[in-house]
Write a structure and sequence with these properties.
This protein is α/β, with parallel strands linked by helices. The protein contains 8 helices and 7 strands. Helix 6 links the parallel strand 4 and strand 5.
Length: 216
């Protein structure tokens, strides 16, 4: 098996990406519908991590037409499509890794991520969650929708395989290659609590798609 560099993986699949997410990923479409109901009316500044083409933003803009969105993604072609789809909306789009992009302290009311966190280790995610926690305003919320597995055994298997592939390919630390290493829902929630969130709860689950709401 050969792994692809993360941004190239999604660039090569831009055509057909949205159809795949909406019709092949069970629960994704339903999660997009639920998302606006989890965002408070006081939310003016929204951070979207791994925003892709902005599928999850369609219903957000319907509910909050004047919301200001900062989107971060590794793939410029996806950001271009997002920009084209939402002309006239308040968008700041950044092509880069959300691990590296600097985010000002207490600058966002809400942060979201949809189907992106299952590519990273516990250690990487905890560090990122601390970064998200810091950039949220007091009582700010983080909403995560992701691919999650049912058992610790499944999680351990994916992570072992990922480590093996990384070693075989001699990948340097900090490089991103596409491979799924999903966590259990319990572990995902524990990591958010470890990052400092005071309230963490499951708000939706369908098949392997789950949503978590975390409050600062």
């Amino acid at each position: 098996m050969s792994l692809e560099e993360m941004s190239k993986f999604f660039e090569n699949r831009l055509e057909g990406y949205e159809e795949h997410m909406l019709f092949n990923v069970t629960g994704y479409k339903e999660a997009c519908v639920i998302l606006p109901t989890l965002i408070t009316g006081q939310c003016e500044q929204l951070l979207d991590l791994g925003c892709g083409t902005g599928l999850e933003l369609e219903n957000v803009f319907k509910a909050f037409p004047n919301i200001q969105v900062t989107g971060i993604d590794l793939t410029q072609s996806m950001l271009d499509k997002l920009q084209d789809k939402y002309k006239g909306k308040s968008l700041q789009l950044i092509c880069g890794s959300y691990f590296d992009v600097e985010l000002a302290t207490e600058s966002f009311d809400c942060a979201i991520s949809f189907q992106t966190m299952h590519h990273f280790s516990h250690e990487a995610k905890i560090g990122l969650y601390k970064k998200i926690f810091k950039t949220l305003k007091p009582k700010g919320t983080y909403i995560e929708c992701d691919y999650m597995v049912e058992t610790q055994e499944e999680e351990d298997y994916f992570y072992r395989e990922y480590q093996r592939f990384m070693k075989d390919m001699d990948v340097s630390k900090g490089e991103f290659y596409h491979y799924d290493i999903p966590c259990t829902l319990d572990n995902q929630m524990k990591m958010l609590k470890e990052a400092g969130f005071i309230k963490v709860e499951k708000v939706f689950k369908m098949d392997h798609t789950a949503m978590i709401l975390a409050v600062k």
